[in-house]
Structure formats: structure tokens, C-alpha cells
Specification:
The protein contains 15 helices and eight strands. The chain is α+β, with helices and mostly antiparallel strands. The protein folds into two domains: 160 residues, 3-Layer(aba) Sandwich (D-Maltodextrin-Binding Protein, domain 2); 148 residues, D-Maltodextrin-Binding Protein, domain 2 (3-Layer(aba) Sandwich), CATH 3.40.190.10. The radius of gyration is 20 Å and the shape is globular. 48% of the residues are buried. The protein binds fe (iii) ion.
């Protein structure tokens, strides 16, 4: 992913003001998103409202740091990022202002929002296995990855990464600390190698036979499925994909989402923008930009890879509840050596 420094500097020099006017004519958006479909997403908002969007794009954790450093004088109106753990962190730091939006309340399912932020798209954490080595029945649930039968066969990214923290947080919420720790310990005992790389690296390692199974976000798989590159097709051909825990709590899902900042200079514009993101058309752009599912139920998307992955039962654990267990999840990973 690219973060063009020169473009960023340009936006800062000419775009950002922190002085609010009676009727907001602009909005300062701090976003960890940077997809092609976002151009249309933002242009449509400006067309509908006349409000210009100044974008600051950077990596998730950098944006959060930046908002903290800017403090009360931050020009940021809206912060959009990925992962419940990051949104929860921003919330804990007291950065968000409570929402007061009938639109969000009516359209975004209750388990996908708190009073301070809302999800605008969802992704799932799937089990991915090498078809030549394992069968789907071997790895139907997250719990199966801790089965001693899979010794030396599991690849994983770091336990400190928000995606894995949120997954373990959901296990803590469902089964308690002790069971969660036993699970994490069992998975570590099955590692084929020390955690390294991102989800796509794990997927490729499974396809290459370096290990037999991993856990990865749905959009990384969708991206590979939509790729024209022969090497990506070969990777997908080697893989079996499982929707985990379908007879139990459902597949763990995470979100992209955001909220209005407490210090937002353009609060009216921020509210309008967040409502806009929950509208059908914006939902489509927002989800499609990263091969995710719209957070608003029944919004139809036209994504062949997601269609190929099919329907599934998603965990409906409230995302704010999950976020509360993230700190404990990190402690557990530390204790069991999931580096
Ligand atoms: Fe990602």
C-alpha cells in the first residue's frame, strides 16, 4: 500500500483549516483507507452537500498518534480506520464525540457500533488450508488449530497484530480467559515457524506447503481470487477455505469504521459525512474498495470474489464488547509466547 508523502504535504499546506464557519463547507478526514473507489465515494458526498473533503491518509497507528499529538487543536473532523482494537483505543483515549444520529441507529446493526463510533464495512477471519494435506473437516473451527494433530502445521502472523488480538478477544468473550489461553498455547505449540509477515504471506506459505493451515482476513483472499496473475491463481488453486465455527458462535468478524472527533472543527459536516457513509450507494463503494461486506444489511454488492466465497454465519458478538478484551488478549499472547 502506498502513502505518497508529497501528496500529504500538499494537502496539509493548502487544504486544512481548523476554523469552523457557520455552515461547514469543508471536512477534514483522517483516513487509513486508500482505495480507488474512494474517489467516487468522496466526490459524491461533495456533489450532494457542497462540502469539500480534505483527506489526510496514513497508516492506521500513525493517524491515531497524529490526532493525539495535535490535541485540542487537531483539524481532524472524522477518523476512519480498520479494526475494532484501534477504534476502541481511540475511544479509550477519549478522542471521539458521541454520535447523535437516527440514520446510523436505524441502518447500522447494534452489534456493529458503540455510542461513539460505527462500523461501515465488515471482514471475516477465515481458516485457509492446503487441500493436498488437510481436509475441511480437520479445520472446521478456530479451536481445531490447537489440536495436537496439527503439530508443526500452523502458520500465523504476530499475536500483537490487531487482527489476532481481536480474534483472541472474541474467544475470551465467548469462552473466558482460561479457555482462550489454552487455545493460544495449543496453536503456538503447532507453529510451523515463528510468526512473521502479514495475512497474505501466511496464505502463500500454506499454498507453498511451508505449513498446512492459517487464519486470514476475507479481503486478502478475495484480492487473490480477483487477481489475473498466474502465480496468484496457483496460490488460490492450492487452497481450501473454511468458514469457521458455523455450528457455534459463527465466523469472527472485524470492521472498518470511524467516528467524529471531540475536537472536530466542522461537526455538522462530520455528522453529514457519517450519515452519508451509511447510505446504500456509499456502503457499496466503501465495502467494494477493500473487498468487504457493507455493514448495512441487505445492501447488494457486485463482487465476484465475495460471491464465490458464499454466505456464512457471522459472530454477532458486539464489537465494543470484543474491544474491551483486547488488552487481556495481548497479555495472553505474551504469556504463551505467540510473538
Ligand atoms: Fe489488512
Amino acid at each position: 500500500m502506498r502513502y505518497p508523502k508529497s501528496a500529504l504535504a500538499l494537502i496539509v499546506t493548502f487544504g486544512i483549516t481548523s476554523v469552523a464557519t457557520a455552515a461547514d463547507t469543508e471536512l477534514n478526514l483522517y483516513s487509513a483507507r486508500h482505495y480507488q473507489t474512494d474517489e467516487a465515494l468522496y466526490a459524491n458526498f461533495t456533489k450532494q452537500t457542497g462540502i469539500r473533503i480534505n483527506r489526510i491518509e496514513a497508516k492506521e497507528d500513525e493517524l491515531l498518534e497524529r490526532i493525539r499529538n495535535e490535541g485540542a487543536h487537531s483539524p481532524a473532523d472524522v477518523f476512519i480506520t480498520v479494526d475494532a482494537a484501534r477504534l476502541a483505543k481511540a475511544d479509550e483515549l477519549g478522542l471521539f464525540a458521541p454520535f447523535d444520529s437516527k440514520v446510523i441507529e436505524q441502518r447500522i446493526p447494534a452489534h456493529l457500533r458503540s455510542k461513539d463510533w460505527a462500523a461501515f464495512s465488515t471482514r471475516a477471519r477465515l481458516i485457509v488450508y492446503n487441500k493436498a494435506v488437510l481436509k475441511a473437516e480437520d479445520v472446521k473451527n478456530y479451536e481445531d488449530l490447537a489440536n495436537p494433530k496439527l503439530k508443526g502445521q500452523v502458520c500465523s502472523r504476530s499475536g500483537s497484530h490487531p487482527y489476532n488480538l481481536s480474534l483472541l478477544a472474541s474467544i475470551i468473550a465467548h469462552h473466558g480467559e482460561q479457555k482462550a489461553e489454552e487455545w493460544a498455547k495449543g496453536v503456538v505449540a503447532n507453529f510451523a515457524r515463528s510468526p512473521k509477515g502479514g495475512d497474505t504471506d501466511q496464505i502463500k506459505a500454506v499454498a507453498a506447503g511451508e505449513c498446512s493451515v492459517t487464519i486470514a482476513n476475507s479481503y486478502y483472499l478475495a484480492r487473490l481470487m480477483r487477481s489475473d496473475k498466474p502465480e496468484d491463481k496457483k496460490v488460490i488453486d492450492a487452497l481450501g477455505i473454511v468458514w469457521p465455527n458455523q455450528t457455534g458462535s459463527g465466523a469472527h468478524i472485524n470492521i472498518s469504521g470511524g467516528g467524529m472527533l471531540k475536537t472536530a472543527p466542522h461537526k455538522e459536516a462530520a455528522k453529514k459525512f457519517l450519515d452519508y457513509l451509511a447510505a446504500d450507494e456509499a456502503q457499496r463503494y466503501f465495502a467494494d474498495g477493500n473487498n468487504e461486506w457493507p455493514a448495512v444489511p441487505n445492501v447488494k454488492t457486485d463482487n465476484p470474489a465475495l460471491a464465490a466465497l458464499g454466505g456464512f454465519k457471522a459472530d454477532t458478538l458486539p464489537i465494543p464488547t470484543l474491544a474491551r478484551h483486547v488488552a487481556l488478549a495481548q497479555k495472553i499472547y505474551d504469556r504463551v509466547g505467540w510473538k
